[in-house]
């Protein structure tokens, strides 16, 4: 079996991979990384969850020079969620590389913060096409040193109508550059983009069909008007922590989340009309376990990266097979197992039979599903998330927050949940029973010698 060490990666990157528990590359990584380290252009067809961010990200990190304060690598992605995810993954891989700056630019993010970041440019910039071209038009963004360029989820970039922005960005890049393109599908438009943008590319492929054993598919035949009650019954019968329920419309996310909340589930809605701040907050609550269930539109099917996400539920069937696979691919990632449940009426069940890549392992009988507890509502989250008005720019670290919670609020380290440090804000999950005391004590104390406002996140 090939290991990351066999791929001739640097010790700094190997150490980061070891810290993350990664030992062996996925098929797409094993195929792509050697070509990219050699400097070849690469076009890859890779499904969600195949490990493509590391496939292009590790070679980017190997080839940039941290001593040069200029944009050397550009990663173009279709959505702000994916921009944040890719930046985070790259930062994890680069943890042991000193002086390396990685930034993400996207709509809904502060222009001022992004422009300040360009005063001392990042070596790697991840961004959405609209925001990147906005900075170009303002003459704030200099791409003449970007010798490595990634078009990630190229099919989605074209589907969202970014052809003109991509042309503008390509024109601002140096003529001599390494081009990398990844796409879940190879449509005519994607093939044309490859022909126009890449030079003699190496082609690599790792589709969902190459890893069929990671995900178990179960179906439930249910009429449309029974689906929400059937969803409650299913969730009461499984370990529902870290579950994503997919629906097709924005309003449905709110309605279903509210329906689940009535039964005691800690559910949140995620859709495209939420303000960026609300979307970020929702994702924080879901990642740290305060919200156990996320009800989402296809917005979340791409760019949603949650550790150990085990369960996907299609409450409503998407319109085509590709969307179904993208949704389902959020689980069973990086060699882990996952379960997908699909609620289908008779017409939808017939439609699924036409999809070549989709096989239902078993159809469950809803009437045979039994509640674990006949009278009590579903178990609610036992965690509460706290917001701290300081972050990375204030030099706060998870260790500082843990230390303050132990010293001031009397918590044990094992009581404290996931901590997220952002540029100007931090979030920490604590036991619900200890949350009020923690807020009171931290507001009256200092963290790393400075007072911060601490409040509940609802």
What would you note in describing this structure?
- It is a single chain.
- By secondary structure, the protein is of the alpha/beta class.
- It folds into 3 domains: 5-209, Rossmann fold (3-Layer(aba) Sandwich), CATH 3.40.50; 212-368, Rossmann fold (3-Layer(aba) Sandwich), CATH 3.40.50.300; 383-456, 2-Layer Sandwich (Alpha-Beta Plaits).
- The protein contains 16 helices and 18 strands.
- The protein has helices at 11-20, 27-37, 52-63, 80-93, 111-119, 129-137, 154-159, 163-172, 188-197, 227-235, 250-262, 276-287, 321-328, 346-353, 398-409, 432-443, and strands spanning 42-46, 73-76, 102-105, 124-127, 148-151, 178-183, 202-206, 215-221, 243-246, 267-270, 293-296, 311-314, 338-344, 362-364, 383-388, 419-421, 426-431, 454-456.
- The protein has a 7-stranded parallel beta sheet, with helices on both faces.
- Helix 6 crosses helix 8 (163-172).
- The longest helix is centred in the first third of the chain and has 14 residues, at 80-93.
- The protein is globular.
- The chain starts with 10 loop residues before the first helix and ends with a strand.
- Residues 2-30 form the DEAD-box RNA helicase Q domain.
- InterPro entries: DbpA/CsdA_RNA-bd_dom (IPR005580), DEAD/DEAH_box_helicase_dom (IPR011545), DEAD/DEAH_RhlB (IPR044742), DEAD_box_RNA_helicase (IPR050079), Helicase_ATP-bd (IPR014001), Helicase_C-like (IPR001650), Nucleotide-bd_a/b_plait_sf (IPR012677), P-loop_NTPase (IPR027417).
């Amino acid at each position: 079996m090939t290991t990351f060490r066999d791929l001739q990666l640097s010790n700094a990157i190997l150490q980061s991979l070891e810290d993350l528990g990664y030992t062996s590359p996925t098929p797409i990584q094993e195929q792509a990384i050697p070509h990219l380290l050699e400097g070849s252009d690469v076009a890859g067809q890779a499904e969600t969850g195949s490990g493509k961010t590391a496939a292009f990200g590790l070679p980017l990190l190997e080839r940039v020079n941290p001593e040069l304060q200029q944009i050397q690598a550009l990663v173009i992605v279709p959505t702000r969620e994916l921009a944040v995810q890719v930046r985070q993954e790259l930062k994890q891989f680069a943890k042991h590389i000193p002086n390396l700056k990685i930034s993400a630019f996207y709509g809904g993010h502060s222009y001022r913060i992004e422009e300040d970041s360009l005063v001392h440019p990042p070596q790697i910039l991840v961004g959405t096409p609209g925001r990147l071209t906005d900075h170009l038009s303002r003459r704030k963004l200099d791409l003449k040193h970007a010798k490595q360029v990634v078009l990630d989820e190229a099919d989605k970039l074209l589907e969202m109508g970014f052809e003109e922005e991509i042309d503008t960005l390509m024109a601002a890049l140096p003529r001599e550059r390494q081009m990398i393109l990844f796409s879940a599908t190879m449509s005519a438009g994607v093939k044309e983009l490859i022909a126009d943008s890449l030079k003699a590319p190496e082609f690599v492929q790792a589709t969902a069909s190459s890893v069929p054993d990671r995900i178990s598919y179960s179906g439930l035949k249910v009429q449309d008007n029974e689906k929400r009650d059937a969803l409650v019954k299913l969730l009461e019968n499984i370990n529902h922590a870290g579950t994503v329920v997919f629906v097709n419309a924005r309003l449905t996310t709110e309605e279903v989340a509210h329906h689940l909340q009535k039964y005691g589930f800690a559910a949140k809605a995620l859709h495209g009309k939420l303000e960026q701040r609300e979307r970020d907050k929702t994702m924080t609550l879901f990642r740290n376990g305060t919200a156990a269930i996320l009800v989402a539109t296809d917005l979340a099917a791409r760019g949603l990266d949650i550790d150990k996400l085990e369960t996907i539920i299609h409450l409503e069937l998407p319109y085509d097979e590709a969307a179904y696979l993208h949704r389902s691919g959020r689980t069973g990632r990086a060699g882990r197992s996952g379960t997908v449940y699909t609620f289908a009426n008779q017409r939808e069940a017939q439609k699924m039979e036409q999809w070549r890549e989709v096989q239902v392992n078993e159809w469950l009988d809803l009437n045979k599903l039994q509640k674990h507890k006949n009278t009590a509502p579903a178990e609610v989250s036992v965690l509460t998330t706290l917001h701290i008005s300081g972050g990375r720019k204030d030099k706060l670290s998870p260790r500082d927050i843990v230390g303050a919670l132990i010293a001031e609020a009397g918590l044990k380290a094992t009581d404290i949940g996931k901590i997220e440090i952002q540029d100007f804000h931090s979030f920490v999950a604590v036991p619900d029973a200890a949350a009020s005391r923690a807020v009171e004590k931290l507001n009256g104390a200092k963290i790393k010698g400075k007072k911060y406002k601490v409040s509940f996140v609802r």
